[in-house]
Amino acid sequence: MTALRLVAVSAGLGRPSSSRLLADRLTEAVRRRLPGEAAVRVIELRDLAADVANAMVTGFPSPRLREAIEAVTEADGLIAVTPVFTASYSGLFKSFFDVVEEGALAGMPVVVAATGGTARHSLVLDHALRPMFAYLRAVVAPTGVYAASEDWGGSGDAATGPLSERVARAGEELAALMPARAARPRPADEVVPFEQRLAELRP
Hints:
The chain has 203 residues and is α/β, with parallel strands linked by helices. It has helices at residues 18-33, 49-58, 63-73, 91-98, 124-135, 162-182, 194-201, and strands at residues 4-10, 38-44, 77-85, 88-89, 109-116, 139-140, 145-148. A hairpin with a 2-residue loop joins β3 (77-85) and β4. α1 packs across α6 and α2 packs across α4. This is Oxidoreductase.
């Protein structure tokens, strides 16, 4: 059985980043629920910020940005995490998905997640993230996860409490959606006409 491919995209800007921490928690929650092994990758957009900006201006992604985009579009499941800036997703987060080819995320199972300073920004999941991925024709898991500063607790650990419950539920939902994505028909290799193959054999 081929390992399912899980990719998490984190738009956190700091190191350490609460967005990356949430991405890691969600990734682990999905892995625990998958029936077999999973090939997991976390993409930190912070490292690709200049590449994303250049691609927006020129229309041509750099090799490492192209490789990151391919990892996302070829995944069987996606975790998308952004910090909240001005009551919405970050510009870097939006710009990354703007440079993804139109239609490439159609049918992609996605868990949307966000981090912010206070719980009042939690509606970003429903007024910004869900509509964006619906426009991209992705399949958004019912449970979105928002983590405010107080959700992590004084120790910075979210191992117990409501946040861990939301993370576990979202992980279960994404894990349930991924096998169907993995079973989708892959694009067939390009068919070369017989006449063209024959011509290539001639001296």
